[in-house]
User: What shape does this take?
Amino acid sequence: MFIRAYLRASTDDQDANRARKTLQSFAADQGVRIAAFYIENASGTTVDRSELLRLLADASPGDVLLVESVDRLTRLPRPAWEQLRNQIAAAGLQVVALDLPITHAVLKPTGEDGIQEWMLRAISQMFLEFMAAFARKDYDLRRERQIQGIEKAKSTGLYRGRQTDQEQRRRIQECLAKGFSVRKTADLLGCSTSTVSRFKREAAALMQSDDQLSIL
Assistant: This one.
């Protein structure tokens, strides 16, 4: 059994390698080893992902596609998900997701007869379909909230569309100073939560540095 781990983050300023240790720890607990990692920064709303396509090309029947969660594999609309699902099936891959425990049985063959094994795979596929649909719904809901936040920000004069780095940083600072959360700030300004979080970390580090200098 050849286990291929797929790790994905949506934007370049996010760490796609974040879940690597989690997947390795999970594999060790299951008594197996990950043979290859495929890591990329790409949206889960498109099938056109270079590392995912490379994984599909490298795969052999019986291999395992291991992901931290189903939404790392897909946030696709249904037609595109069906396309990817068919590609996965054609490659002979079996999907194992940490957040979908029923799929973990793939890593520990029980020697059950053909009918029981078929039923287990059918149930796993049913849950995978549900989680794939949920991942897309979650994405659509976030987008809807972001659009609503932008519209509200426009009405209050907070939103200015795409901004220069300095302008964006100034507006992030304004929102955080008003007590807005990272998520609400990102929605209002049309940027990612990781951008807002990075600004907070940099601001905190700068403040700490200033405090140390004042002591000296």
